[in-house]
Every structure is written in C-alpha cells, then in structure tokens.
Amino acid sequence: MDQPSVFVLFVLLAVPAFYFFLEFRTGWRLWSFLPPLLWIYATPLVLRALGILPEESPVYAGIRMYLLPVFITLLVMTIDLRRVVATLGSGLPVLLVSTACVIVGAPIGYLALSAWLPPGTWTGYGALAGSWIGGTANMAAMERALGTPPDQMGLAILADQLVFLLWLPLLIVSARYAGPFNRWVKAKPLVLDETEAVGGAGPEAAGEPEGEAAADPAPAIPVKTYLEVPPMLDLLLMLTAALANVALCAWIAAQLPELPPFITGSTWLVLLVTTGAVLLSFTPIRRSYQAEVTGTAVLYIFVANMGASASVAGFAEAPAFVAGAFVWLFVSASLMVLAAKLMRTDLRLMAVAAIANVGGAASAPVVAAAHHRSLVPVAILMAMLCYAIGNYGAIVAGHLVRIVAGA
C-alpha cells in the first residue's frame, strides 16, 4: 500500500475516534442536535475539499466493496431475532404497519417535489428509506444495493438529520395528547405494568368490557449473555463466521441472474448477506461480544469513507430534496394516524413504533420514556427488529420512487 493510501486510512479511522472521544469527554448538549454521525460524515468531506484528502483513492473503493457486507453481517447476526419477535407480541403488527407507512410515503414525497428533482434522485430516497426503517447501517447498505451516487448520499444524510430535528420533539410532545387521541380512536387498553392500564381513557371509553386487557404487560429486554470464551477466540470465531457469510453470499450472488432495474448484482449481495446474517443470528455466534463492538466501529469508518468520497455537486438540489423528505414524513405520519384509528392502537404504542423506524435504537428509548417508562423495553426491541428488516424495506421504497420517477 502506498503512503497516500495509508494516510487516507488513518484519517478515516481517526475521525470517528476523535468525535466519539469528544462526545464521551465533554457531554455537550450540542451532540443532541448535531450528533457525531453528522460530523463524521462532514469532516472528511471538508478535508477533501481543502485538498488534505485526495479526490480519488483505492481506499475509498476498497472500503465500499469489502467493509459493507462485513458490518452488515456483524450487526445483524448479533440480534436475537427469535426472542425479539416472541417478546414483542401484539406490538409487532403495529411496528410492521408503521414500517409500511414509511415505505408508502416515499414515492408521494418524491412526487410532491418531482418538478425540481431529477429522476436519479430515487436512489437518494432509497438510501434515506434505509435510515428511516433501520438506521445508518441500512442507509450505507443502500449505497451499494441501489447504486446511490455520492452526491445523493450526501443529500440523504442532510435530509435525515434535518427531518429528525422535527420528528423527535414532535413524538415526545405527543405524549400530552395521548388521552384525547386514544378516546378518538377508541384505543384498546394498553397494560403497561401490574397496576396501571394506560390509554388516556378507561375501558368504558375504549369500548372494552371491564377487566379486559388487549395487550400484555410491557416485555423485558431479552438478557444478552456473551460467549464464554477468551477474547481472542471470540474475535477469531466472529471473523470466521462473518467472512464465511460474505464469501458464500458473494459467490451465490455471482451465479444469480440480474433483473434490472429492480435487482442488480449489488442488490443480490446486500439481500443475501442480510439473509445470511439473519440465519447466523439463530446460532451461538450471535452472542459474540467482539461482533457487536467491531460491527459498530466499522459502520462509522464506512460513514467517514462516504464523506471522503462524496461530491457537493448535487447540493443545489438540497432544498427540494429536503422538502420532499418533509412531505414524505408528513404523509407517513398521517397514514400512521389512520392506521391507529383502524387498528384502535394506543398513541403511545404507535409513537414508539414510529420512532423505532425513523430514529432507531439511540432515540427510541427517549420517546418511550416520555410516554411511559414501561415502554422503553418495547422501543428497544422494535428498533432492533427494524434494523433487521431495513434493507428489505428500503429497497422496496427506493424502487417505488424509481417507478413514479420514470427512471
């Protein structure tokens, strides 16, 4: 490896380390509004604009090609999906409906601003769908699966951060209106602990007989027990499982026919790697502590690489792109309200499902705690499941936008 490539790799490792160290040591409120993710993406972008990082480097392509399937495997295979699904119970349909609302809102958001957006924007909206169904890792996966160009990735990250600044406080404040909302939808009582049935209305107002409970008590978070092996063996087992999954899926993807424009070789790879990681989650390797730590670290290196290889050429489309994202969110939220009416869903449960999609595991407990402390485990479980299904849903959302765009 030549010296410039070593320097590029050093910067891409140092930038995430610096911002997470700064967040850890300072505890500034700034991180609540401008999280490390945004800085990790923006800093390499600025360094490249200043000429400190090169315009082209084999490191950029290498990280996109090799690290993406690795961190997808590491993060998904550590989720105990069987226990998550079993524990969620009646909250699972609410989560899936919320996810469907996000998917349906994508093409409508694009259509609302289509006069100011080029057809290629569908890949950016597909990447944004990855974040709004799963999280940052799913957004990164869409860069490969949908062929999202660097300028569209930059727009997706920008829209994600700006919309979230509105979405999080809105869902927190919604707790004040749970009572009137639940009476309007005739919500089924939501039993959150042994002494309290929360819904803003008693059983009579909800249209239920006395003593009838429509939901089970809030589940506890599945206890994670890690592999009882030495750290070095844990690391070797984790790497072996992850690379075996990537190698096998890459071989299978090469044998499968491409079905453009819906399925390309890269799309096959992301879908197969995700599915392989899901299968690994049913094996003891899901309890690898090293996989959790390594997967998260690699994810943020990948985000730094996205910034370093990004282009600001498409930022002229930023106002229209972001406006379309706000329309998308408004439509999705409206559909969630309609679904809550039809399903007679408690606002608290729908709000938690909504933030589990457009927010993820980091913010879901915050909204849940604002509604009721017993919903915090539900929020975490929902966010975990969203991460597992995010790649599938985002590909569907992206192609819905592609169809309406005529691309």
Question: Would you mind describing this structure in some detail?
Answer:
With about 400 residues, the protein is an all-alpha fold. The chain has one domain. About 70% of the residues lie in helices and about 0% in strands. It has 18 helices and two strands. A two-stranded antiparallel sheet has the order 1-2. A hairpin with a 5-residue loop joins strand 1 and strand 2. Helix 4 (about 60-75) crosses helix 12 (about 230-255), helix 4 runs antiparallel to helix 14 and helix 7 runs antiparallel to helix 18 (about 375-405). The two termini are about 40 Å apart.
Structural class: mainly alpha
The number of E-state strands comes to 2
Mind summarizing the main beta sheet?
A: 2 strands, antiparallel
Quaternary: single chain
Order of helices and strands: HHHHHHHHHHEEHHHHHHHH
Order of neighbouring strands in the sheet with most strands: 1-2
Low-confidence runs (pLDDT<50, min 5 residues)? 193-217
What is the number of independent domains?
Answer: 1
* Range of strand content: under 5%
Inertia-based shape: globular
Measured as a percent range, the helix fraction is over 70%
| Radius of gyration from the alpha-carbon trace, in angstroms | 21 Å
Distance between the termini: 39 Å
How many individual helices?
18
Query: Could you report the average pLDDT, rounded to the nearest whole number?
Result: 84
